[in-house]
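Proteins fold reproducibly. Take a tokenised chain:

. . .
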Amino acid sequence: MGLFDKLGKKKPEETEQEEVVVAKTPEELKKERASSFVMGVEYIMQTENPDEIVVIGKLDGRAVSGNTVSVCNPGLDNDIAGEVQIISIRTVDGDAKEVSGGSAELRIRKNEARDFRVGDVLFTNDVPSESTIHAYAKALTDTYVIKRQLDITEEEAESFSICDMQEMIRFYCFLQDQLQNGESTGVNIPEERVGKLKQILANRILAADHIYCIFSKKTGEPFLFSRTTTDQNGGFHVSAPTIRIFTDNYKTLMLGAFDASRYEMKRIDNGSKMKGIYNFFGLAFYLNGAEGVEVITDDTILESSLLVEKPDEASITENGIPISNPGLMRWLYMLGQMDQEDIGTPDGKIIYTLYYKFMANEATKAKFLVPIHAQGEMPKADEEGVLQVENGDRFDIPAVPGKNGRKAIFVFTDWRHLYGTINEKCEAVVETLDSLINSFDCIINSGDYSKGGGYISLSTYNEMEEIAAKMDKAAL
């Protein structure tokens, strides 16, 4: 049974049968309520009997010796829940027949189908899924973050799931926020330990069979998540945009957490060569402008360089650098993601204006690919397909009717967008908007998703130049 299978959904064959409900006596109900509990496993000890182990953790509720209870691990994909019997109980006061709350040692008969681990959860079936998830997370963070200060062996790290590491990093970030607010946490974890765990998590994600990512239905690309905040002087700050990914065991929950009219979840397969996830991140970072990945929650972020190193362009001549504009694309996509309802609110207007200013600043400096048809012999193209135009070379730029009686041409931020629109091999020249706008309006990245591009008229460009000049001056 997976993480959310125990939310109460029945198998198809079960729904076809009429359920017979047998009323329980008040005494039975009282006894059942009395033995309701959940406990996350923090430590495991083998006993002299190979068929039995002792699990130690913090118990919420009441456990009774002799009862049979369920066990699962919310952090494992496709985890199969099982049952175990409580043989005996020990507390700080010694052996006991039952225990209510606090730390406890439960001696249990092993389930042959599972290898027990920190983060496993023992629970009675009346306990809601939210409680088992909380117990799982608390057992992990109390053990590895609070007690062990993330001093983790290679063997332990190898056993961790993606969710395990995400929970530890999330809790560490929570403690750091508390420290910044002047609160004492009792935790002083060296940064290199956190960095090491983040890299292990990044490697585990890259080696996964598949992951899921939230996409924007408006742009057709991974949704870029960002926060806009104000400082004490009234200035606005936009956080670096990130994409968000999930594993199998959080898929069901996240499908219900995001508005289906605005978002969609897509599966990213790694493929037989195990490069699918790596390539997906590369496009998201260095073409679309994302700067990191949110793993399951928005407070567990991996920087882009941990997953895919930025291409080294130091040894490449300017003409040889592949055309890409991640700085422009991030703002085009973030503008395109916004709903009209969002833009209509006071906060939405502020956010839209901020995004537009950043987009304008990037657009006036960007280099674009412009598809062309040559007259006569085609000039020689380089390895990227970009033409090296000589004086006297003549070529046509395909144009379409634009706005206000002007003609418009198609320009593209990179080869991916160009070939995604023009389904044939073509040549292109590299130009800036400044060199084109007096003759043509420019349509950026025309394709199936118009929200991933924009229409730039002469008046719009002049406005963007003014914005860019003010931003450049303010940066001095």
